Amino acid sequence: MERWRALKKIIFYYTWALKAAMREKRTWMLMILVSYVVISLSPNVELIVSKAILSRMESQEQYFPYVFILLGILLLVFISSDVGNVIYMLFYEKIRYSISNKLFERVMRRISRLSMDAYEKTENNEFLERLVSASRYDLHNLISSNMSFYATITQTLAYLAMIISASPVLALPMLLVAVIPYCYRMNEAKEKTDLDYELQGAGRRMEYLGKLMTEGKFLKELRLYGSFQKVHQKWQGTYGAAAQKRYGHFTKWNRRKFFYGCFGQILDIGILVLFVVMYYHNKINFSTLFFLWQCQANLNKSVGWFASIVPNSYEAVRRIEECLGFIEGALSEEKAEEETEGRSELSEKSDDSQAQKYGKKAVEENFGIRLSHVCYQYAEGGFSIKDVSLEIKQNQMIALLGENGSGKSTLIKLILGLYPCSSGEIRYIADGREQAAETFFGCAFQDYASYHLSLRENVGLGNLAAMKDDKKMQLHLWESNCQDIVDDVGGDLDATLGRLFDLKGKGLSGGQWQRLANARALYSERLALVFDEPTARLDPIAELEQMEHIRKKLQGRTVILVSHRIGFARIADTICYMEDGRILESGSHDSLMSQQGRYYRLFRTQAQWYEGRDCGEQGKIPE
Q1: How many whole angstroms separate alpha carbon 259 and alpha carbon 328?
Q2: What is the predicted pLDDT for the residue at 351?
Q3: How confident is the model at residue 423 (pLDDT cuts 50, 70, 90)?
Q4: DSSP, res 364
Q5: pLDDT in tens, 22-49
Q6: pLDDT tens for each residue of 227-247
Q7: What's CA 152's distance to the chain center, in Å?
Q8: What's the pLDDT score for residue 226?
Q9: What is the pLDDT of residues 328-384, one digit of tens each?
C-alpha cells in the first residue's frame, strides 16, 4: 500500500512537471514525446518482424521482404534516435533556463519574505538548501525522467499486448516475474531519501570543516597553532560516521537486491522451461517460443527500467513537494496580507472621512517610531527583549548602549522588522501614515556584508536609483571617509573589490569593508538610519575620524546608533542603556552622568581605560 501511494505521488508530479513543460514549450514537448515513443516502440516492431521472418523460414516461404523491412526499421530507429537526442538536448537547455529558473525565482521571492529569526534554526537552513536544490535541479530532472517514464509505460503495454496475442495464459505470470525489481526498489528509494535528509546536517558540517582546512583566513591560524590535524580529525570523524550509515544502507539493500535477483532468475528459468515444454507438446511452434522468450527478456528490461526511473525520482519528488508547499504558503500569506491591506485602506478612508467631519487628523503624529511593550522570545524558550517601550521622533538621534549580550542587536532586528515581536507592537509613521519597516530604514549592521562586486555596487546597493550617478557617488565616498578606497582603484567605480571571483580584484581590510558598509547606509535615502557598532573594526584614530564623518552626514536625519562605546554614543540626543533585554536608563549624556548609575559607571570605566589608568581591583567596575 505504501509503495502504491508513493507511485501515485510520483506519477502526480511527473504529470505536473509535464504540464509545466507543455505550457512553456508545447511544440518542442510534442516533438520529443513522439520521438521517445517511436524509439521505445521500435524493439517491439523489430520483434514482431523477426517472428514473421522465423515463421516464413519454418514454412519455407519467401522471407526476404521481411528482412528488408527489419533493416528499414533499424535505420528508422537510428535516425529517430539521433534526431530525438538533438531535439531533447536543445529542449533540455531551454527547460533549464526557463521553467526551472521561474520556479527558482518564485522560491527566492518567498525566501526574501522570511523573518530573519528563521535563519537561527539549523533545520530551516537545511530546508532552504533543499528548496534551492528542488527549484534549480529537480524540476528539469523530473521533466527528463517522465519522458522515459511514459515511453517505458508505452513499451511495457505493447509487450503485454504482444504476449497476450501469442498466449493469453502466460501474460500474467510473465508480468509478475518482471515486476519483482519494483518490489524492493521503492522501499530502498524511500529509505535512502530519509537517510539523505538525516545526514544533511553532517554534510553541512563536513563542508564547513573542509573550508577551515582550505580557506586562508582559517588556515593561517590552524598552521600557527598547529591545530590543522585536530580539525582534520573532526572532519574524518564526521565523514566516517556518515559513511558508515551509507555503507549500512548500501549493504542492506544490495543483499536484498541479490535475493530478489536470484529469485527472478529462477522464475525466468521456470518460464523458459514452460516455453520448452509447450513447444515439446506442440502447443507452440519455434518462432512463437523465440517470440515469447524475447518478449519476456525485453519485458524484464522495460519494467526494470521503470523500477529504476520511478524510485530514483522519489527524492526529487519529495523536495519538489516541499518547494511547492513553501510557495503555496507564500501565496496564501500574500493573499491574506492583501486582504488585510484592503481592510486597512478602507479603515483609513473611514478615519479620514471622520477626521474631515470632526476636524481631526487620521494619525496625530507626522513622523515617529513607537515601540509599545515589545518582547521577543527565542524558539527554545527564554526572552531576549523584555517589555521595551520607546518613541523615536523625527530628526532625533537615539543611542542604544550596553554590554555585549544586553539585547541591543536583537532589539534593532525587531525595530527593522527582521524579527517578529513575540508580544507588543512597533509602529512606523511618516507623513501621518503607517509605513512598512522594509521601506523605512537604511542600516549598517555589526555583521556587515562584504560584497565582492564593484565599488559602485558596494555603495549603490543602498540606493539603486542613484547607482549610476558618478558625481554624487564620488562626492559621497569622499564625505564618508572612503577616498582611500577610491584612490586604490584609480578612481574606477566599476573596479571589483575582493578576490573571491576576480583575482585582479582589490583586496580590502576589515576596517575598509566596514567603512563601505557605513557609506552604503548613508547613501540610502530612507526615512531613518540604523548603525550597529559602525566602528567596531576600526582603530581608535580611524574611529574618531569615522565618527566625525558620520556625525556630519547624520545631521537632520533620524538615526539609531548601537554601540558599547561611550565616545560614539555621546553624539546622540538620547541614550538608552540596556541590560538583560531591558532599557534601564534613558536620557541625555549629562542627565545620565548626573544620576551616577550604570551608564555613569560604564563611562568612567571606558574613560579610565583610554587614559591608561587601572579599572579597579580584579576587573571590578569602579563606583
Answers
A1: 43
A2: 45
A3: very high
A4: S
A5: 777 777 777 777 777 777 777 777 777 7
A6: 899 999 999 999 999 999 999
A7: 33
A8: 87
A9: 865 445 444 444 444 444 444 444 443 343 333 344 457 889 999 999 987 766 778
* Amino acid identity for residue 24 in this structure: E
The 3-state DSSP class for residue 502 equals coil
User: Does the pLDDT value for residue 319 go beyond 80?
Assistant: yes
Note the pLDDT tens digit of each residue in 143-180. 777 777 888 888 888 888 888 888 888 788 877 777 77
Question: E strands along 393-538, which residues?
Answer: 397-401, 423-430, 433-434, 441-444, 528-532
Alpha-carbon span 96 to 119, nearest angstrom = 28
Map grid coordinates 515463421 to a residue.
Answer: 55
* Radius of gyration for the alpha carbons in the chain, expressed in angstroms and rounded: 35
C-alpha cell at 231: 580539525
Phi-psi group of 573: left, alpha or beta (phi > 0 → left; psi -120 to 50 → alpha; rest → beta): alpha
How far apart are alpha carbons 46 and 71 in whole angstroms? 9
Contact 154, 302 (CB under 8 A): no
Q: Is the pLDDT of residue 273 over 80?
A: yes
- Name the amino acid, one letter, at 456: R
Please determine, for residue 538, whether its predicted confidence score (pLDDT) is greater than 70.
no
Query: In 371-492, which residue ranges form alpha helices assigned H by DSSP?
Result: 408-415, 455-460, 470-479, 483-488
276 membership: H or E segment, kind and range? helix 228-280
CB 475 within 8 A of CB 519: no
Residues counted in the chain: 623
* Whole-number percent of the chain with pLDDT over 70: 83
Interatomic CA distance for residues 345 and 434, integer angstroms: 11
Residues 6+ apart with CB under 8 A from 30: none
Q: How far is CA 606 from CA 370, 546, 589, 600, 609, in A?
A: 31, 19, 14, 10, 5
C-alpha atoms less than 13 angstroms from C-alpha of 159 in its C-beta half-sphere: 27
Q: CA end-to-end span of the chain, whole Å?
A: 75
Phi and psi, residue 416, nearest 5°: -75, -5
- Measure the CA–CA gap between 179 and 204, rounded to whole angstroms: 38
Inter-axis angle of helices 180-198 and 314-358, to 10 degrees? 50
Grid coordinates representing 436? 512598512
Helix (H) or strand (E) run with residue 495 in it:
none
SS3 content of the chain, % helix, strand, coil (to 5): 70, 10, 20
Written as one letter, the residue type at 245 is K
Region 569-594 average pLDDT: 89
The H-assigned helical ranges of 359-482 are 408-415, 455-460, 470-479
Alpha helices (runs of H) in 281-395, residue ranges in sequence order:
286-312, 314-358
Q: Report the candidate in 530, 581, 563, 560 with the shortest Cα–Cα distance to residue 377.
A: 581
**Residue that has been written with the C-alpha cell 472621512 in this structure:** 353
Backbone angles phi, psi at 587, to 5 degrees: 160, -175
Dist. CA 25–CA 91, nearest whole Å: 8
Q: Considering the chain, what is the average pLDDT of its residues? A: 80
The pLDDT of residue 539 is 66
The most distant pair of C-alpha atoms in the chain lies apart, rounded to whole Å, by: 120
3-state secondary structure of 388: strand
Which residue do the cell numbers 530525438 mark? 84
What is the C-alpha separation between 1 and 97, in angstroms, rounded? 38
| pLDDT tens, residue by residue, 551-579 | 777 777 888 988 777 766 777 889 999 99
